[in-house]
């Protein structure tokens, strides 16, 4: 589990294309200080498993499913990425509960002089995003300030702009999005309840109060 509080900005130092996968090497002195084989590190919001650690760098393999759903398919040597270690049991929940399972990508649209930043929102994710709710953008826990049919905005403070890659984004850049997992579970449970209610109504067995 992660909370969306980025610990450091890392740098991709190598990208190796494999069969239906990719291997990345990332420099991150802080997150590798206590990391070992099998540990989880979120790379721009994507939960990845450490394969090797050496000299302040770590190596991870990215499978095709992850490449298809995230911006890591386009990552290149020299790119900056947000890094966060998995939250330990009993650790502070500084942001919100995140799995590091990216739901899709959006595009950076722009930022005004007050730090209000707007991103494109894919149609299949729009129903999970609500005003004042939580969303993860490139692994950063953020609060939705406003939402439209195909976009949403967040208000970024100077610290967030300086301490994450969001302050370096240019219009058109892809970002990873993870919606609130609680919303997805609620939807799944509600679907079953609504389906049962409809079936009972259609069969004439709906309970009457």
TrEMBL record:
Entry annotated with the keyword Translocase: no
Looking at the record, the residues that make up the Lumazine-binding domain are 1-96, 97-190
Question: Which one GO biological process term can you cite for this protein?
Answer: riboflavin biosynthetic process
Question: Which reactions are catalysed by this chain?
Answer: 2 6,7-dimethyl-8-(1-D-ribityl)lumazine + H(+) = 5-amino-6-(D-ribitylamino)uracil + riboflavin
Query: Which EC numbers characterise this protein's activity in its record?
Result: 2.5.1.9
Annotated metabolic or biological route of this protein:
Cofactor biosynthesis; riboflavin biosynthesis; riboflavin from 2-hydroxy-3-oxobutyl phosphate and 5-amino-6-(D-ribitylamino)uracil: step 2/2
The Lumazine-binding repeat boundaries are 1-96, 97-190
The UniProt record lists the keyword Transferase: yes
Query: Pfam families this protein is in?
Result: Lum_binding
> Could you tell me which InterPro entries the record lists for this protein?
ATP_synth_asu-like_sf, Lumazine-bd, Lumazine-bd_dom, Riboflavin_synthase-like_b-brl
Alphabetically list the UniProt keywords: Repeat, Riboflavin biosynthesis, Transferase
Please give the Gene Ontology molecular function terms for this protein: riboflavin synthase activity
Q: How does it assemble?
A: Homotrimer.
Q: Which PANTHER family match?
A: RIBOFLAVIN SYNTHASE (PTHR21098:SF12), RIBOFLAVIN SYNTHASE ALPHA CHAIN (PTHR21098)
User: What's the stated role of this polypeptide?
Assistant: Catalyzes the dismutation of two molecules of 6,7-dimethyl-8-ribityllumazine, resulting in the formation of riboflavin and 5-amino-6-(D-ribitylamino)uracil.
What protein name does the entry list?
Answer: Riboflavin synthase
């Amino acid at each position: 589990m992660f909370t969306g509080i980025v610990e450091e900005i890392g740098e991709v130092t190598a990208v190796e294309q494999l069969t239906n996968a990719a291997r990345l090497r990332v420099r991150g002195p802080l997150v590798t200080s206590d990391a070992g084989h099998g540990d989880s590190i979120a790379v721009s919001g994507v939960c990845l498993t450490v394969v090797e650690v050496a000299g302040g760098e770590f190596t991870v393999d990215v499978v095709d499913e992850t490449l298809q759903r995230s911006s890591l398919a386009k990552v290149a040597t020299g790119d900056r990425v947000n890094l966060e270690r998995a939250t330990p049991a009993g650790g502070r929940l500084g942001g919100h509960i995140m799995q590091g399972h990216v739901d899709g990508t959006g595009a950076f649209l722009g930022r005004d002089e007050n730090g209000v930043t707007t991103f494109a929102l894919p149609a299949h994710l729009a129903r999970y995003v609500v005003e004042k709710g939580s969303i993860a953008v490139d692994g950063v826990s953020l609060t939705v300030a406003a939402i439209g049919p195909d976009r949403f905005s967040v208000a970024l403070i100077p610290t967030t702009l300086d301490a994450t890659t969001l302050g370096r984004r240019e219009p058109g850049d892809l970002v990873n999005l993870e919606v609130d997992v609680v919303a997805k579970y609620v939807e799944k449970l509600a679907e079953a309840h609504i389906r049962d209610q409809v079936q009972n109504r259609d069969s004439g067995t709906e309970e009457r109060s």
